[in-house]
Specification:
Blueprint (H helix, E strand, L loop, with lengths): L1 H17 L25 E3 L21 H13 L1 H21 L5 E9 L7 E12 L4 H67 L5 H35 L22 E3 L1 H7 L1 H22 L4 E12 L12 E9 L7 H67 L5 H36 L7
Parallel strand pairs: 1-4
Antiparallel strand pairs: 2-3, 3-5, 5-6
Helix pairs in contact: 2-4, 3-4, 4-5, 4-7, 4-9, 7-8, 8-9
Length: 461
Amino acid sequence: MNRSFASFSLLLLLSACAVRGGPELDRTVVPDAPDQWSSRPEITATSPDDSDAASIYPDGWISAFADGALEQTVAEAFANNRNLQSVLAQLRAARAAMRVSRADLFPRVDLSASATDAENAATVYDGALAASWEADIWGRNLALARAGNADARAAAADFAAARQALAAAVVQAWYDRSAAALTFDLANRDLDRRRDTLRITNARFRAGLASRLDVRLAQVALSNSEDRLEAATRASANSARTLEVLTGRYPAGEAQGASDLITPAALPSVTAPVSVLAGRPDLIAAEARVAAAGLRATDARHAMFPQLNLRFDATTTSGNFGDIFDPGTYINAITGGLLQPLFRGGALLAEAERQGEQARSALLDYAQATLTAFREVEDRLDAEATLARQVDATATAAEEARAAVTLTRSRYINGRSTIFDLINSQTTAIAAETRAIEARRARIENRINLHLALGNEPLSA
């Protein structure tokens, strides 16, 4: 008995010498969450832990746009988008893999049967029943099962992130469609202006008040406007097709978006930085992958420890097929074995080191993802104020440019301005009006991306 115990102790000592410890992850690389967003400290940051703080958007942030058709379109995308369905399939596969990882915690049982029919001999039936189980002394199998569970959590978070990203893409396409329609209408109005200019210039040419050069310049401006209209027509159809594909429909270019580019409501409060860490799906997924990598590193280290396997075998041979199903005909044997890896060419130690570095890599990825998430929120909050001022400035510029076109047209008819003045004023006007549309679209896009960066839910479940 003492000799057996000494042998077992020697095995443990050998395995302990081979293991150099697990990965010592420096979790200080993960930045702490600040109390407030530095770019907009005047905006209240709420946390789910605040007992007196209601949900910022109880029906989802899309409800803030007050557009029922938009909410229906997002719901349609959730039901029909192929990419989201693919991520859902990956989630189901991860959950199945989790069940596979748990299987080694339980015994394995196999039953086999065969029949031998030799010439000039009676048929012989053989049956075998085998059961085996590895005693999880060091928790290896449990670590792998927990790693599979962490992988499944990461996949669930990936699905939530894909769902949020899809909602943001649909809302963006919804308002891109509106911006494209406004740009198309603007191109039509500009074409009407250029036609009017050519008409006036021809009349002045016939009256001897304008030169052939004036007519040609007016015609060039008209042709450029026609080119701009064709580009706007194409962009409008493309934006419709983008929205259709997101919602799982055939891209026929017929989808309608918002009736206008709305002005987003003021932000009364935003999600606190600490809540972003706890609620943003991509960060949840990254943290779960750190846990999975650490558990696999634990398994790799424990692979150098002794393994205890128990096995039960039962066999039977009979000329009667029914004896295969008669437990009384079986010969039973129970065996137990202890396996201690001694030399594998350094493979086990190298695998432990590899898994440890994988765990460190996962932790650093999570730390970087955290910094990126904070930057995205800070960028969007900062842009909230600057874009609001840009919208006002571009709206003023567009209004003044339109007034300048009206004044220059009158002066040109009266011979007090040149064709160059009129064409330049019209070119300035369409540029200013286009910039005003783009600023309004950018403000909506920034608000959408802010909700995405904060990890806010798009629609209530």
